Here is the input.
Amino acid sequence: MNSRIKSVLIASLFLTATFLLVDAYRTNAQRKTVDPSGTLEPQSNERVINKRSDFAPPVNITLAKTRKGPIKFHGKFLDDDDWLKGLTISVSNTSRKTVTYIGIEIFFNRPGKQSEEPGAVWHLDYGDNPFRYQSERAMPPLHVKPVLPDDTVEIHLSDDDFDQIKAFLKEANYSASINLIELRITDLGFSDGTAWNAGRINKRDPKSPWGWSPINPGGEGPPKVEQPEGSAQNRTANFLRVRFNDFNTGTWPLLKWVPSTLRAPQTTCAFTYPSSIECPPQPSNCFYQIVKKYDDLTGNETLAAQYEPCKMTVNGQTFTCTNVLSTRAIPCSTPTPTPSTQVECYQVGWHWNSFTSTCSESCPTGEGFSSPGDCEQGVTEWCERTCNCRTPQQCGPPVSPII
Here is the structure.
């Protein structure tokens, strides 16, 4: 009798445990797939790296690879949430000048319901950006190997940069999982002292309000500089206490600067230039990048809002102090008049249809047109500039305003 009772009790406990496990599994599955509003949450580890060629830079991003190997631009691939760690970007010099600085912008799009909010930008540098220095004499000695014409250089995202990106995106209220980034060239420096930005080559000019003058800018005399909305001089701010890594001992209390209101992107075309502004109330030498515009000259770009890190360099190491709402230059969405030549089309970052000899903002689609899926892996890649599959060398800009 005792053994029978024991058997019944054991069987009952086993059934009870089974029901509890099944119920827990169902509850957990519901939590993973349904949010409070009742919509399905994405469970995919699909990632995408898009390459942009805004303003037809005279260098070309030819390859991006993660720890798992090369990535096909504009195509989906599977990876975990730390997929950016070890990111390497290859850049080919397709100009006839020797390159001493390359600035790459990593743009983080807002996912899902945050898509209307400003994105975030992280800058990856090869060498020292000449736009950050008031004169050639103020620039530090060259510490990277110059990139000769037709040469290619690899630019790496360091593990330290990766850790700072994660903290930066968290402060900007991003999801821990990043599914999509965009890469583009923003600034270039050359061995002859000139520099490229937004489709134009510039030379140093002590009479200019920003220390540079564009070559053949299409205007006369030094232009007036307009202070953009949301700049350090007229932006209201809130201050929150946060902590960041100390240079030597672990933690360092800093004030986090958060703009109190979001500024709408500019809607008119403008002539823009890059600048660095000190981040109040951070320690001295903590700067962020911003794009301003000329008042008197016309251009083919417009300003868009995005979050930008404030950075400072101490003993050769760069640290992120905080983040601010800044601006960046993007091609005008509706150039007036619409570019009618291949050169003008490339200069505004649009796409040239060689079959119809027309310029459009996006690549033509449909029957008879190529798509990224047509490219042969390891042989050709999708060339956003020409809207077809080409080798990295063929995708280089056929015409550049600086060469």
Notes: The longest strand covers residues 317-331.
